[in-house]
């Protein structure tokens, strides 16, 4: 396990905890055809908290680090509970979900790419592992909740944000920046790209222009700050 | 491979076989927008029979035991065929599906937790592996069949049942009970919790109380024995 | 890594490239409730190009070969771009999608079974790994795009085609035919079975005969050459 050289436990657990809060907030706000029960909300919280690390380690072919210690699951479950408790009184729920989401994507992306680099993967797969680790938990969440997969549809720019941060991390590593510093910068880049995309309502061109973008509005949990 | 010390082949194949029958019965009763063909029914049978063990071994980072011998696939495919054949004449189909489901969840949960313990995982991840192994096959089934994921919605209590059995197993192991005996007791606990939940129509509170539970009725395959 | 003895890099990259083109063509033709953006089309291309190999290596419990070199991702991304560029002017789009699909299923099936044989798996799991590698990418695509999973529904015969080719490969290997030659013949068998099924509109019997088959017509991308 090279893991310990790259990702300190406190950093990993921070990502898991923020992911758990964000997942539970997201699921609490869900208003679909069918309600989730409290267990369902907790499952989404744990899934977002644990998913990125599990997917990363499956792709890298190493034992899932999140299952080698009690702390990951305890943190994910506890933070899901926190997310459930603060969901009701919270006024600015959407804004908090989006902010946490950006940080969580950034952390899982940076940790995925860092671990891939340390394990000796070439640069392109290293970026790929980061991107999949960053967006994978959200894809699983959408599939299990029966929502359209956010990363696939117009207006998301999730994957672009994750790829930006992971690419910056890899480039910094190539020019000799230590991995921990490169990871911090990579997290910041992903956060900024993601938040700018939300704030300025940027989206990639649709494959055809017949339908206007509606995904964010329809899912009802991703705020559209400025509509064109 | 520590597997052979914990789970005898006959026990593993029994779980695979019961899972295959249950999956094929479930899929045969499916009345969605689009019909499944016979191959689709067989795929669901094989998925439920094999899924729990595959997910367990992926999480544990070991070679999938279900692919190291011809017997697993032969058993899963054969029992799916049996499930298809007995689906038509069977009068009490729903009752049988629910009963088999409880046993299969119990077995996959107990085997997952047992294997995790033998491989040296801490207790919390050991319970987690059992729960995911127990409910994972059903999640895949629902996603592939386009159904709402049962474990996520009001009235399921799947995960609670699996977690109860796995937790009992871990606790018994901690106080010195041999794993095989603890596993048998764990299976029984999961079965009883699951069946009691169905019989008494117990459900976790919804995240909000606007909608009454409808999932079981809507999917049309999970019987509601007593409605409030 | 036994991989290099079985699957030359050029062959593997050919499968990845054809898969990327096919995936991007498929996603470009998608006319669902919600549009995909250009990134979504690229993701489907990369998913189809990379998916079969990733699933194969996860099942086999080895490091994903597709992440050990930059070439796989570069090929998958580049061929997705090609697929996007040729999608608009192409007149015979459906015919090309189906043809590529048959070749890609054949290659991933044959490579999956070959690698399983070389790693020493018994014959039944070896066929299973081939079938799952062949159809797995398409299942992921359908789930992520929110389509009914093609392999599950009436009229597909995907899995039968993949199983035919993989079985022929295993049988030829058992009678002493070298794996590379057996793989080529297996690819051809899968292609022929799949294309014959499309041309002659063959399907397995439905579980009940109330509904006529509609899947192919509804998804709008699988041509039905002759309807009964």
TrEMBL record, chains A, B, C:
Membrane-spanning segments: 6-26, 38-59, 71-90, 97-117, 123-144, 156-175, 181-204
Source organism, top-level taxon: Bacteria
Keywords: Cell membrane, Membrane, Transmembrane, Transmembrane helix
Subcellular location(s) of the protein: Cell membrane
All copies of domain Glycine transporter, residue ranges: 9-87, 100-173
InterPro entries: Gly_transporter
Keyword Manganese: no
Family listed: Belongs to the UPF0126 family.
Protein's name in the database: Glycine transporter domain-containing protein
Membrane topology, record value: Multi-pass membrane protein
Keyword Aminoacyl-tRNA synthetase: no
Pfam families: Gly_transporter (PF03458)
Principal location: membrane
